[in-house]
From TrEMBL:
Binds 1 zinc ion per subunit. Gene3D superfamilies: 3.30.540.30. The gene is Dpp3. Its EC number is 3.4.14.4. Zn(2+) binds at residues 450, 455, 508. Keywords: Acetylation, Aminopeptidase, Cytoplasm, Hydrolase, Metal-binding, Metalloprotease, Protease, Zinc. Pfam families: Peptidase_M49 (PF03571). This is Dipeptidyl peptidase 3. GO terms for biological process: proteolysis. Its cofactor is Zn(2+). GO terms for cellular component: cytosol.
Length: 737
């Protein structure tokens, strides 16, 4: 059997996303609006399969064919008859549920491959003897032959997502290196093109020179007679002695489905902001225009307090090894009014709270653009995973001048981040009851501060294409050096493009640090309803949770490549290192032996030193993070951040050794079962499913009732069209023979 790092356990937690009451309160028109947005999101989410691994679309198609022909209970009878044990069949169900939940065969949180926890030959017997095989023998056999080996392979390069020799990714062709990624980013910057909706494909011409294709995601192809801001960019270029070609049409048939439902949603929009937002999204996905998506995002920001909230597009860049390309995601949710009222009070206090952050006023935005901040009950979240909160859009220029929105996903927090006392690891016994009692409330506070005042704070110093600065270079002083500002963002440069591989994690660390720092403020805690001893317990558990998370983060570090696979967890490890460095016994991490005789560890936080020792240490660190971000000081920022992110076996913590202990005692992230919506006549019905691997599979089997088989053909055709980009030279030669 495979290493436990690369399997999902049979007892993995599975929870349902409860939004029944919030959906019930929607009007018929609001339900229709939510339904079509959900359909657009679910269709678009299929592109994540093509953004993850070469084999993911085939695995998805194979599983979907299997479970469409026989539901999990029916297939179970067949599997047992083929000689599988109950445990082996459950392992297969968990694997299938994992593929659907992560939209691929790599974990969305950690980017680690997971494989079926049963013998390959047994799974082959189930597949080749299935009802689906009887119905579509050639298709099922071809799918298995294409993905069977890769489904189980744990060849070193295939264990993690990454670039070049470090892993596998389909954001870049298989022969691309980090140097190619940097060159492509320089090219994109030179043409004022965003990387968010692109992939990069590299081929070698007859003279042995590399040729790069930058492919935009769009419904239209390069040769379509349609004039937009994108069409003038669709041509060949020579750049720094290299040939580049900008094309479009990536994911075209899938995005066509997205566009169709966005068009339908427009008929049920509540106001002109929503109508114009959807029109620009349609333009963006049709033409391949990030500028159109920005325009749509402007209307989205202006759409204050909608009953049905949503966002869709190529959004988060966590899984791009270079940190610039966005993974597709789309969500639809309804407002939770009680928690939203607390967030509104936090927004009302934001300008005052921003003044408490440890950097000079010049390093803060010129004007705080009051954002929406709502607690939402998610109806649909399509993509590779579901976060606890979101601060979007990610476009730096919009965030600086137009503002942003914050959302806390209440029904996700309610199920995804709860831990049973008996499963709590690495805490002292006397902390466990307190932690269990206050983790949820403290996490509400942390998410609120993280999203609103973490991601929502700070200014980027920039000079536009006309040479105009957004700060006074004569008077603004760098508080770390006492000198004038010597670096800033030039026209076309963004936070992601400059800080690339560390941008996401660095920003998450900054936001987490702001949350810890400001949770010490009594006004903040009073907004959330905590005073006196309760407030002190919330502070303690919030800091303790961050310290424990820093230790748990070691699961997502790869010693062989000396790199991190998850931005949020790297950020939490960095904060742990900062607090350990503060000394004076504020935080200790001690290896121990558990009651089962196996290695264990304990984290301790001295609650009496949080303010006297922890706060000053966090203040110094946070100021340095912000100054380097504001000034675009990549060299300084990298040195600071990568220094704290280094994992060594230096005493007393010996983190490399502790990593083995963390892996030994890790608990897999829960799988989340989401409902479907179905249009019956003019009414929208909510379809719910049980909290089990089988329930999650059923939710996907019923997700595309009209065109499931057609979508699977489309996905495999798209994957096959580009398959040559991930074949080894030997495979490519044999394929040409």
């Amino acid at each position: 059997m495979a290493d436990t790092q690369y399997i999902l356990p049979n007892d993995i937690g599975v929870s349902t996303l409860d939004c029944r009451e919030a959906f019930r309160l929607l009007s018929p028109t609001e339900r229709l609006y939510a339904h079509h947005l959900s359909r657009a999101a679910w269709y678009g989410g299929l592109t994540v399969l093509l953004q993850t691994s070469p084999e993911a679309p085939y695995i998805y198609a194979l599983l979907s064919r299997l479970f469409r022909a026989q539901d999990p209970d029916q297939l179970r009878q067949h599997a047992l008859a083929e000689g599988l044990t109950e445990e082996e069949y459950q392992a297969f169900l968990v694997y299938a549920a994992g593929v659907y939940s992560n939209m691929g065969n790599y974990k969305s949180f950690g980017d680690t491959k997971f494989v079926p926890n049963l013998p390959k030959e047994k799974l082959e017997r189930v597949i080749l003897g299935s009802e689906a095989m009887q119905q579509y023998p050639e298709e099922i056999r071809a799918l298995w032959q294409t993905c069977g080996e890769l489904m189980f392979s744990l060849e070193p390069r295939l264990r993690h997502l990454g670039l070049g020799k470090e892993g596998i990714t389909t954001y870049f062709s298989g022969d691309c290196t980090m140097e190619d990624a940097k060159l492509a980013q320089d090219f994109l910057d030179s043409q004022n093109l965003s990387a968010y909706n692109t992939r990069l494909f590299k081929e070698v011409d007859q003279e042995g020179k590399p040729c790069y294709e930058v492919r935009l995601a769009s419904v239209l192809s390069a040769d379509t007679a349609s004039v937009s801001e994108v069409t003038s960019k669709l041509k060949s270029y020579e750049f720094q002695g290299n040939h580049f070609r900008v094309t479009r049409g990536d994911y075209a048939p899938i995005l066509q489905k997205v566009v169709e439902h966005l068009e339908k949603a427009k008929a049920y929009a509540a106001n002109s902001h929503q109508e114009q937002m959807l029109a620009q999204y349609v333009e963006s996905f049709t033409q391949g225009s990030i500028e159109a998506h920005k325009r749509g995002s402007r209307f989205w920001i202006q759409d204050k307090g909608p009953i049905v909230e949503s966002y869709i597009g190529f959004i988060e860049s966590y899984r791009d090894p270079f940190g610039s390309r966005g993974e597709f995601e789309g969500f639809v949710a309804m407002v939770n009014k009680a928690m939203s009222a607390k967030f509104e009070r936090l927004v009302a206090s934001a300008e005052q709270l921003l003044k408490e952050l440890p950097w000079p006023p010049a390093f803060e935005k010129d004007k705080f653009l009051t954002p929406d901040f709502t607690s939402l009950d998610v109806l649909t979240f399509a993509g590779s995973g579901i976060p606890a909160g979101i601060n979007i859009p990610n476009y730096d220029d919009l965030r600086q001048t137009e503002g942003f929105k914050n959302v806390s996903l209440g029904n996700v927090l309610a199920v995804a981040y709860t831990t049973q006392r008996e499963k709590l690891t690495f805490l002292e016994e006397e902390d466990k009851d307190l932690y269990t009692r206050w983790k949820g409330p403290s996490f509400d506070v942390q998410v609120g501060l993280h999203e609103l005042l973490g991601h929502g704070s700070g200014k980027l110093f920039a000079q536009d294409e006309k040479g105009v600065f957004n700060f006074d270079p004569e008077t603004v002083i760098n508080p770390e050096t006492g000198e004038q500002i010597r670096s800033w963002y030039r026209s076309g440069e963004t936070w992601d493009s400059k800080f690339s591989t560390i941008a996401s994690s660095y920003e998450e660390c900054r936001a987490e640090s702001v949350g810890l720092y400001l949770c010490l403020n009594p006004q903040v805690l009073e907004i959330f309803g905590f005073e006196g001893a309760d407030a002190e317990d919330v502070i303690y558990v919030n800091w303790l949770n961050m310290v424990r998370a820093g230790l748990l983060a070691l699961e997502f570090y790869t010693p062989e490549a000396s790199n991190w696979r998850q931005a949020h967890m790297q950020a939490r490890f960095v904060i742990l290192r900062v607090l350990l460095e503060a000394g004076e016994g504020l935080v200790t991490v001690t290896p121990t032996t558990g009651s089962d005789g196996r290695p264990d560890a304990r984290v301790r936080l001295d609650r009496n030193k949080i303010r006297s020792v922890g706060r000053p240490a966090l203040e110094r660190f946070l100021r340095r993070l912000q100054v380097m971000k504001s000034t675009g000081d990549v060299a300084g920022g990298r040195a600071l951040y990568e220094g704290y992110a280094a994992v060594t076996d230096t005493p007393p913590e010996c983190f490399l050794t502790l990593r083995d202990t963390v892996l030994l005692r890790k608990e897999s992230r829960k799988l989340i079962v989401q409902p479907n919506t179905r249009l019956e006549g003019s009414e929208v019905q909510l379809l719910e499913y049980e909290a089990s691997a089988a329930g999650l599979i059923r939710s996907f089997s019923e997700r595309f009732p009209e065109d499931g088989p057609e979508l699977e053909v489309v996905l495999t055709q798209l994957a096959t069209a580009d398959a040559r980009f991930w074949k080894s030279p030997r495979e490519a030669q044999s394929g040409q023979a």
